[in-house]
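Quick log. Single chain, no ligands specified.
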Amino acid sequence: MSRTNRLLINNAETCVDEMLQSIAWQNPGQRLLKGHRVIIREDAADFCSSGHVSTICGGGSGHEPFSAGFVGRGMLTAAVAGSVFASPPPNDILAAINAVASPAGTLLIVANYTGDRLNFGIALERAKAAGKKVNMVVVGEDCALESQDKTAGRRGLVGIVIVMKLAGALAEQGRSLDEITQACTHLSKAMGTIGVSLSGCSIPGTGSSFKLDETEMELGLGAHGEAGVKRMKILPANETVEVMIDHMMNPSHASHITIDNGQKIALTMNNLGGLSEIEMFVLGRRAIEYLESKGLSVVRCYNGHFMTSLDMAGFNLNICKVNDETLKCLDADTNAPGWPRVCVSKNTGFNRRNNDPVVPLNDKSLEAVGESVNFPDKNKLQVGHALIEAITLACQSLISNEAFLNDLDTSAGDGDCGSTLKRGANEVLNRSRSWKCENVEQVLLQMAGCAEKSMGGASGGLYSLFFTAASHRAQAYTVESWNDCLAVGIAAISKYGGAEPGDRTMLDALVATRNSLETSISENASIKTAAQNAAKVARQAAEATATMKAKAGRASCVAAKLLTQPDPGAMAVAIWVEALA
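-> predicted structure:
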């Protein structure tokens, strides 16, 4: 959901001016025009005096990096900013035209909103009256409109950024104002965009732009959060993309886009501000897949922040029909900070037909260790099966405690301890069916491989170290052997992880378990009794971490007053020790 008015700004009235000043400071190739909300290229004077057409775009603030982020060589010569979600006034637009006036002419690129058309139109007429050579292209590519009735027309969305790139590249080539105007007009009619959002956005000084139920999403909304065509239940990523593309291509809709089979297209996945990178790439994956299933050829994909809506949790999907000339312009070099660099293959360009996962050379990963080992000892085989059964119970216990461990990790870490261990447990369950279970050393090495491959992060590394080190001492199915395994495993974790007993980590439960086993050995206890005692002590040690001061791991960076629950890593150890017992 949006953050309402919890925004890290100084003042709603001054935030736009402070932002523009910072943009110019952070990008030395840009300059802020004194007395105006206008960003221009550092080399604008030289560029224009050498006979190149200047290009200007602009609109309300809150859509960053649009449009200041696209000022630079190969893109815009100047950008004009209005207040948040408000068109810039004619005097700022006219100041931009005068600042980058070129003998070859100036092109204004304007999004199709009434305020933008009016204010840019006023500035254009005043510039013409003063003898300037100025053209204007209005970009409106929204595909949400269903009605065939007369309306204000298709709204201008992220497609305008693609038009900017074309205009800037052609201007850099020295093309004429009429040529650039014609090419941009053609491209603006060869594209379509539709948006979807899970929330409104936080407007400085105002609050949330609109409200959505937590189970809803809005289809076809505008760049400022204007109402879309419908509200619907939240769908998974794949289905969301399919609904959007089907709506865009529905011939019964007034604003649909028609694309012939085999057409080359550039796909733009525009983050409206509040979606994670994971979400954007998952959505982009299905968009490429679904478009190509319809016979289209996706030859470029741009994924990122282009024309946001403050912190709105949504995205735009833009489809643009391209030819070889357009592609050259999209690929042309630019130093505009907001334009993405697409990593293409030196052999196939954007062709992905050979883009299968790379097979490592001489792969000798841990998961392959022990695959050919076989010890046909019936007693070992019987005990080995019992070990696998115990490991299975431990994995199942970790999986069932995912939410509990995540909850413990919320205040001390990043809230994913349970989910991380669940991934490792599932990997062990999936792979243990084929293990040579009569050899405990190989079983532990296999578990190290599972932890390393599936868990990731510090937890995966620590468990991989633990099982790898323990495997060196796994000689027999006895309490003494398990005690030795624990000892070397604990030493490895402490050596490479940097923690010690008493630091409020998984080591506290592991060390307590080992101490319990040593006591059982001295008392000549049975394996069953030793295991039961160890489980009891492990639980007590894990719960005791609730009152400890964190000295290692992420929790050591958290205020002590927030650490009121047991350490999730220690509690996880208690859970699997109890299950093993």
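The chain has two domains: 15-204+214-331, 367-580.
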